Amino acid sequence: MSTHLELKDLSIRFSLEAGLFAKYGRFVYAVNGVSFELKRGETYGLVGESGCGKTTLARLAVQMYKADEGDVIFHKNDGGSHRLSELKKKELFDYRSRVKYVFQDPARSLNPRMTIYSILTEGYRQSPAWPGEEQGRKEAEEMMQTVGLNAEDLDRRPADFSGGQRQRISIARALIMKPELLICDEVVSALDVSIQSQILNLLLELKEKFNLTMLFIAHDLTVTTYFCDRIGVMYRGKIVEEAPAKLMAEKRLHPYTNLLYNSIPSRMNEALELEAYEPFDSTQPLEGCPFYHRCPRREEKCLKLPELQDIDGERRLACYFPMEQEES
Ligand SMILES: Nc1ncnc2c1ncn2[C@@H]1O[C@H](COP(=O)(O)OP(=O)(O)OP(=O)(O)O)[C@@H](O)[C@H]1O
Ligand SMILES: [Mg+2]
Question: Would you state the pLDDT for residue 264?
Fold first, then answer.
């Protein structure tokens, strides 16, 4: 499979200057040197607990934030590539029509005063690809049906819809310009379990229908293992382990991945042990292993940052003392 999107050594920190910490010149080190690739047609799952930098990374990928370091390179389906750091305004339009982001919070990302039709077509209208009102309306009606809603609902407003339906609207908005790559940020986390599976099935259908490459962001491994081809696990702004979903389900080598896996509800006992650990503090610059403070296997060596290394052509790992596990 060819490479579709390359994220190269991305870092970003946010200043806390406007706030309480002004005089200390403090920062949040949200993403600390992250590199990975999305292959054309694959679904890549990015997992990790709250605050580890998943949304920030997604926003770097669509250039809602500009990276302090690193770059994003997009290889278009029809040839040629875009390098985000060098994009001119016109190219940014092109990039943003090809790479779409579905926001984490559908309630807040849909403007309550706008009709669904305006929401769906707002970005499209400003792009050179906008086909005019009549054809635009037709495409919006089709897209509503594609995501399992009614064409007549285009004239209603977000408040008329349930959480699951709003998420379908967000997805329709992302797909109306027929992108190549879709970034889904916790698109099911806020929904009831029964609705979750409906949305996941819809995404699987749409992925086939539109030949999409997908970056699927989630905070638990269960959904991701089922839904994704490969999984990258993030902790404190770093990827600590990456492997095909199937291999990850069999075996986890990083102590954090292992812990994350064990914290799914059916294994609550181990999860309870987790509670004893402090969450990480992102206002400290990262020096050693990001998981150092919580790791049961840490040694002095771990105070030096372990590199994310290819270990067998399929898995990458950033750990000096990986788990030795029997395959389950
Ligand atoms: N615009 C911002 N300004 C300042 N700090 C920010 C900003 N955006 C994110 N952060 C901080 O950066 C860190 C990473 O946040 P991010 O939202 O990327 O995490 P996440 O993995 O998406 O978490 P969640 O699972 O809760 O969505 C957090 O400490 C967060 O508070
Ligand atoms: Mg997030």
Answer: 59
**268 pLDDT higher than 50:** no
Residue 175, pLDDT > 70, answer yes
CA distance 231 to 1: 16
Give the pLDDT band of residue 22 (cuts 50, 70, 90): low
Extract the tokens encoding 133: 């009102």
Cα–Cα distance for residue pair 222/224, rounded to 1 Å:
5
Which of ligand 1's atoms lies nearest the C-alpha of 104?
27
- pLDDT attached to residue 193: 87
Compute the Cα dihedral for 217, 222, 228, 233 and give only its sign.
positive
Helix, strand, or coil (residue 311): coil
State if residue 46 touches ligand 1 by the CB under 6 angstroms criterion: no
DSSP 8-state secondary structure symbol assigned to residue 284: S
pLDDT score, position 105: 79
Specify the pLDDT at position 108.
78
Instruction: Tell me the C-alpha distance between 190 and 315, whole Å.
Output: 30
Beta-carbon contacts of residue 218 (< 8 Å; ≥ 6 apart) = 45, 46, 47, 186, 188, 189, 224
Question: What is the number of alpha carbons within 13 Å of residue 297 lying toward its C-beta?
Answer: 14
Alpha carbons 65 and 135: distance in angstroms, whole number = 33
Residue 189: name the closest of 85, 105, 292 by CA.
105
For residue 109 and ligand 1, the question of a CB distance below 6 A is answered with no
**Ordered structural domains, the chain, with CATH:** 3-228 (3.40.50.300)
Answer whether 56 contacts ligand 1 (Cβ < 6 A): yes
Using CA atoms, how far apart are residues 17 and 61, in angstroms rounded to an integer? 25
Ligand 1 atom with least separation from CA of 186: 27
Distance CA 59, CA 141 (A): 29
**188 and 196 Cβ atoms separated by less than 8 Å:** yes
In order, the DSSP letters of 174-237 are HHTT--SEEEEESTTTTS-HHHHHHHHHHHHHHHHHHT-EEEEEES-HHHHHHH-SEEEEEETT
